[in-house]
Write a structure and sequence with these properties.
The complex is a heterodimer of chains A (264) and B (351). Chain A has one domain: Orthogonal Bundle (MetI-like fold). Chain A is built from 14 helices and no strands. In chain A, helix 5 packs across helix 7, helix 7 runs antiparallel to helix 10 and helix 10 packs antiparallel against helix 13. In chain B, helix 2 crosses helix 3, helix 2 packs parallel to helix 4 and helix 3 crosses helix 4. Chain B folds into two domains: 230 residues, Rossmann fold (3-Layer(aba) Sandwich), CATH 3.40.50; 114 residues, Beta Barrel (OB fold (Dihydrolipoamide Acetyltransferase, E2P)). Chain B has a six-stranded mixed beta sheet with strand order 7-8-9-3-10-11, sandwiched between helices. Chain B has a five-stranded antiparallel beta sheet with strand order 2-1-4-5-6, with helices on one face. With 351 residues, chain B is of the alpha+beta class. Classes of the chains: A mainly alpha (264), B alpha+beta (351). At the A-B interface, helix 8 and helix 9 of A face strand 7 and helix 2 of B.
Chain lengths: 264, 351
Amino acid sequence: MSSRRTTPIPVGILAAVGVAFLAIPLVGLLLRTPWSRLPELLSSPVALQALRLSLVCSLSATVIAVAIGVPVAWVLARSAVPGTTFVRALVTLPLVLPPVVGGVALLLAFGRRGLIGQFLYDWFGVQLPFSTAGVIMAEAFVAMPFLVITVEGALRSADPRFDEAAATLGASQWTVLRRVTMPLIAPALLAGTVLAWARALGEFGATITFAGNLPGVTQTMPLAVYAALDGDRDAAIALSLVLLIASLAVLLLLRDRYLRSAPS
Amino acid sequence: MSLASQLRVTRDSFTLDLDLDVPDGEVVGLLGPNGSGKSTALRCLAGLSPLAQGRVQIGDTIVEDASRSTYLPPERRSVGYVFQDYLLFPHMSVADNVAFGLRARGVDKRTARSRAGEWLERLDIADLADRKPRQLSGGQAQRAALARALVTVPDLLLLDEPLAALDAATRASVRALMRSHLADFGGAVVLVTHDPIDAMVLADRVVVLEDGRAVQSGSPADVAQRPASNYVAQLVGVNIVRGDALEGAVSLTQGGSVHVADRRISGPVIVAIRPEAISVHRKQPEGSARNAWPGRVTSIESRGDVVRIEVASEPPLAAIVTPGAVASLGLHEGASVWLSVKATDLDAYPT
């Protein structure tokens, strides 16, 4: 039955082009990396600031996404409230929305003259745009949908009868959630969290639109890469390398989800 | 009375309408075909499905009364529930599964673990305490599920097809084990099954449920000997025919007639004809048998060391004969035979 295994020539050629298209830029990045200058480049004040800011903001955004995204996923998956289709469309939208549009929308809502932002500023003197908090918001905005859809899918496929069994054993709804439902979807929760973190770490469009590009305040690594490209190209490459390694780590962590050839 | 309930549920075209009272210490077997409402009844008792009408009282507590909008959720009912596929929590060890009910009810960790340990001991699975459910065989998982349901000492124990997921060999041993534990358990037990042997062995009383209604209730022996419906008759392997009795003659609803020994019974009756009591002949029998019918063999089926043959006679009947009889009579599908049975071997009872 070898005939089934041979690849038609046009498909083979196009597939090779496809792989090359995806691989060559990454190989180029590795080839052009100034390995000997790497420690020096990555320990420059701008790079360190960007690294630290990226870490703080992406982790904070992930925490926020988990804290409010899991309840959203639960409501979408398990509750019978009307309009869930609409809500699902709404929370999935940032997934496909151009990030810069998200940034503009955030600005219109939370900017100093924005829908909510004007009250925040007038009453509390809080100004979100062009602040580190703004970066976290922008990142959470684009990252949360990844968590919501991953966790919702898991909650949907998890057998709700385990929850019923727990209830017959005397567990309150909260105990059921804490000790049965969530542990059962732990792998998906982890995957969603890691995905959301990776998305937050790489966030560029919404961040630069809503929070600007201020070194030490809002300039995360992707923004620093973009800024460095104009001047110190080696610094841009070094920071890119760090992001590439982070992405590889994420892929490795989620290998069961994405690197398996067929579901077992 | 440890369980007193009137269950009324309507869902699409299905209606459950069942009154079920179970005193402490009694095991009631709810026997019925798929879709008869057995599982729905259990879910209602546990509070997993709400009642449309009716009430449920467990112990001294009215846990649900539809007319007064009283409804206690499952976690506030004193109920143990063993699910058909056990539903042991896959992320917890066996010991943690068993301790779960105690922990959920606020028992501290150390006490919960030691009491769970006692139950594992009682069910002879103490050596499996640290295993995960996926590492258990069907019989072991069944014991763990039973321990988990019993550890909180509920007033009412619900068993949903507790033996259905087991292979035949395990079934027999678990059934015996279960029987002894049900005897020790002091509360009311409702056991749902579609297996007559489970019901006969485990239950003190059998309630037959069909299309959401109880069609028969009685001791297992009574239900087995005098089935009130075709479903039960088929389950227990007894022929039943319906008809009108008058002075020992029963004219059958489906045509034909039979003679019974009981001359006093009259009116609509069911006549039970045990397949073992039927004699099979190739020619019209002579002698004392009052009931004899010609017919054609439609199926011959080996059942261990006996053979069950089905005969299209009037009424259609199943008979059980020895393999030797099959050979000496030269029986085969399509063979024409005579069936006979003595009037004293027929049991007529009112419908």
